[in-house]
Amino acid sequence: MSGVPYADDVPAAPLPPAGPDAVPDASGAVLLPEEGVAPGAGGLACDDLGEGADLARLARERGEYLDALQHLKAEFENYRKRVERQQRDIVDNAATALVKKLLPVLDTADLALAHGGGEDIKQLAGTLFDVLAKEGLERLVPEGQPFDPELHDAVAHEPAQGDDASGRLEVTEVLRAGYSWKGRVLRPAMVKVRG
Q1: What is the pLDDT of residues 138-166, one digit of tens each?
Q2: In a domain, 148, yes or no
Q3: Nearest-CA neighbor of 29 among 18, 41, 13?
Q4: How many domains does the chain have?
Q5: Burial class of residue 36 (count of CB atoms within 10 Å of its CB; 0-12, 13-18, 19+)
């Protein structure tokens, strides 16, 4: 044998005598007032200190894992929102590019109508514009309005006459229609100004 005594061979430590202040608990163990708990009565004995340290370590690890999970959840939510925003931007940019390619068709229809185009051209241009207008296309009609370089591209100028010599530029004629797409200027109107 190794000389290490088995648990059965070790004599049990004697319990201190129960005095008049000792109170038995539900299991019959006696609580001593100076110690607060009898050994083995469910309180923190020597063996329980190791379990308390394990519980503290587990609680700390649990907190770390919870923090990591919350951080990962927030990062994923930000990623999801960023991907959705990028997808919307891609769709919007593709739609904007398509509308820009269709503007010459509307210009050609306007020219044809200005030079006596028939009812067929009027219907075709009207239908195309109506479809695009439902998606967010607006025609800029600046005639008679003050000149705004954000909305208008002045290609011709005539001097002010008489009372109009206030120094303010005013759009007198639209040479090519301008358009905005979903509230942003897609193409400024080509105009003639006076002032």
Answers
A1: 998 887 788 888 888 788 888 877 665 56
A2: yes
A3: 41
A4: 1
A5: exposed
